[in-house]
């Protein structure tokens, strides 16, 4: 029972951080406003996205709702192997994937779009604006991939 409380706390922490930062943007900035943090590298920019990464599937909310349901099913499958002591990277990866998916799903339900605000220019490329939930998804996916490929993670029944 204690491990589920820990897992829930990690997921909840990421979701709350995501939602609070988005609320701060919504309450303090108009759409399109930018605050330069580090010149030619990092800005806080109030942006909305009705699609996914790089603006794909713009306005296709039904697609996102269905995809999210399938994602939660996949996460339930992955969650049966979580164990923070024996498989820390795998476990954190799964928790980050759940938290990131939930953070953006909340936005899609509430606003029919996702609130984005982290705006980086990397080697002259203006990277698509993103948020904490997106970071959670990317870090979770990379960590899961690394663990599955290099960490020797195998399901208990294999």
Task: Explain what this protein looks like in three dimensions.
The protein is of the alpha+beta class. The chain has one domain (2-150). The protein is built from four helices and four strands; from the N terminus they run H-E-E-H-H-E-E-H. A four-stranded antiparallel beta sheet has the order 1-2-3-4. A hairpin with a 3-residue loop joins strand 1 and strand 2 (42-49). Helix 1 crosses helix 3 and helix 3 (88-111) runs antiparallel to helix 4. The longest helix has 27 residues, at 2-28. The radius of gyration is 17 Å and the shape is globular. The two termini are 26 Å apart.
N-to-C SSE series? HEEHHEEH
Largest sheet: 4 strands, antiparallel
- From the helix content, strand content and strand pairing, which structural class follows? alpha+beta
| Anisotropy-based shape | globular
Total number of beta strands: 4
Helix content: 55-70%
The residue-averaged pLDDT reads 92
| Spatial order of the strands forming the largest sheet | 1-2-3-4
Uncertain stretches of 5 or more adjacent residues:
none
């Amino acid at each position: 029972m204690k491990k589920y409380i820990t897992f829930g706390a990690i997921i909840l922490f990421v979701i709350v951080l995501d939602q609070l930062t988005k609320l701060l943007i919504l309450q303090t900035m108009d759409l399109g406003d930018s605050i330069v943090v580090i010149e030619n590298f990092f800005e806080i920019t109030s942006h909305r996205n009705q699609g996914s990464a790089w603006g794909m599937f713009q306005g296709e909310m039904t697609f996102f709702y269905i995809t999210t349901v399938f994602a939660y099913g996949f996460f339930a499958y992955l969650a049966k192997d979580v164990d923070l002591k024996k498989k820390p990277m795998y476990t954190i990866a799964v928790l980050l994937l759940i938290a990131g998916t939930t953070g953006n799903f909340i936005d899609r339900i509430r606003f029919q779009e996702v609130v984005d605000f982290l705006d980086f220019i990397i080697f002259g490329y203006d990277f698509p604006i993103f948020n904490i939930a997106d970071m959670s998804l990317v870090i979770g996916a990379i960590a899961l991939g690394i663990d599955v490929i290099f960490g020797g993670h195998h399901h208990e029944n294999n």
